[in-house]
């Protein structure tokens, strides 16, 4: 009987898998576009750096920490009005991408900041002494020096988004998590539940292995 159940939901399983990839992809792109400059801003406005601005850093840091401190399931529900405003609906993978993006942006921003802090301060000081503009320092020194750490951050953020996307199924966000809840949990079908877990584990392993290998290639140290 479990085998019959799996064959029956195979089209739904295929659709759910691509919905998960869709949600994660959109959220990751938004996280990189917004989170990368946010992480750079947190770093360069810190004390002793070339764009030192403690009030700005404190405000940005407070907002980032505030969003990060909210459990994702609560954030998911709290952002339903914003999701409705942006996408016109509160269900489906596109709607879930709004909350996923909101959770991923501060997460990735802190990872970028941490990666930048690993850069030798002497390299930054040499660039400043050479008369490089702040934009040149960011573009030609900070980002190239921290690219391996940032890529590892992208990997970690992607894996977190896969986990968050599974939780989005609770409010009808679609994806593998939604399938696990509708067909596995509500119908008490352990075969379907285990299958969805295996799919998510395999997806995470592929992302982790690929990210680690690429990070090693880009590591200049």
Automatic annotation (TrEMBL):
Keywords: Cell membrane, Membrane, Transmembrane, Transmembrane helix, Transport. Residues 17-209 form the ABC transmembrane type-1 domain. Pfam families: BPD_transp_1. The chain crosses the membrane at residues 20-44, 56-79, 91-112, 149-171, 191-211. PROSITE patterns: ABC_TM1. SUPFAM superfamilies: MetI-like (SSF161098). It is a multi-pass membrane protein. The keyword Transmembrane helix applies. It is found in: Cell membrane. Its main location: membrane. Belongs to the binding-protein-dependent transport system permease family. This is ABC transporter permease.
